Amino acid sequence: MDNLKKNKESTCVVTGGAGFIGSHLVDALLDKGYKVFALDNLLTGNENNLVEAQKNPKFTFINYDVSRELPVLGHIDYIYHLASPASVPDYQKYPEETALVNTVGTRGLLKVAKAHGAKFLFTSTSEVYGDPKEHPQKETYWGNVNPNGIRACYDEAKRFGEMMTFLYVRNHGVDARVARIFNTYGPRMRPTDGRVISNFINQALHGKPMTVYGDGVQTRSLCYISDMVSGLIALMESEKSKGEVVNLGNPEEYTMGDLATKVKMMTGSASEITHTDLPPDDPTKRRPDITKAKTLLGWEPQVRLEAGLTATIEYYKTL
Ligand code: UDP
Q1: pTM of the complete model
Q2: Separation of CA 140 and ligand 1 centre (Å)
Q3: Which residue out of 195, 197, 202, 309 has the highest number of ligand 1 atoms within 8 Å of its CB and is therefore the one to mutate?
Q4: Number of helices (H) and strands (E), helices first, in the chain?
Q5: Of 76, 92, 165, 256, which one has the greatest count of Cβ atoms within 10 A?
Q6: Residue 213 designated active-site
Q7: What is the pLDDT of residues 208-231, one digit of tens each?
Q8: H or E segment at 264?
Q9: What CATH class does 3-183+224-250+288-301 carry?
Q10: CA 17, CA 15: separation in Å to the nearest integer?
């Protein structure tokens, strides 16, 4: 009861709130009774993702680039920093914006968190592990990242963001934590964002060739959006997460070749599966070790790949 009362009076800021994960997080926080500000400059986000949220009087959308100083919003209790282009083609199209929002933007938001005594969550990424030499990846692994390759605008900026977050925990006493988000999918991913799930499903639904990059033996572990959102909230609200970095993702691992076959079968598509060049610096394998999330937060994914794919396929059919 006390918790519910506290939630009702508390204000959350979600940067990147019009994006794929951000907008689902906004919906979940509104459901929990929070007042929510979504900040997004709509570089890769879409206001249509907030149609439901806009019906809630506790919700405010502000079109804003969080690499700039934050507008005055009244008292803030929680800051979730998700703003960033996140698909490979998106951050390669906007490398400088990507670098800035995760570095300058993170610092600015940490200053706001300090001024308000707000809890802060920085969304980092499995990309900080680069092409990992350790498998599965634990939070203690330092990674194998190309510092000046085409992914560096994202990988290195996220690593900088982690560093800045921990600097503010240590030197300024900010109650902050870091989520390392592994591949996540579900409704509201832009059909053209270039990620593997959105590509495969949309290619399959439209009878176009399904483009497996390289030989398709590279692996990814795919987490459904509802699981990711509950993990982010659990990490923010945990009393034990200050100064912690936690992997969030689904440890079920698939090769991209098998994923293409599965999507083709589930959509009943006649599309052919083709192979094109593997993009530079494409990690060969990726799977989170989520022991820490399980023990610290009591969190683990609930949605199996088939169920998540079914819901995502249905969503794309409605577009
Ligand atoms: N991929 C693919 N075909 C596509 C898009 C992606 O085979 O049309 C592969 C890509 O090479 C990578 C994996 O799928 O190995 C995941 O790619 P995505 O861009 O979704 O995420 P990330 O590389 O950031 O994990």
Answers
A1: 0.96
A2: 25
A3: 195
A4: 10, 13
A5: 165
A6: no
A7: 999 999 999 999 999 999 999 999
A8: helix 256-267
A9: alpha beta
A10: 5
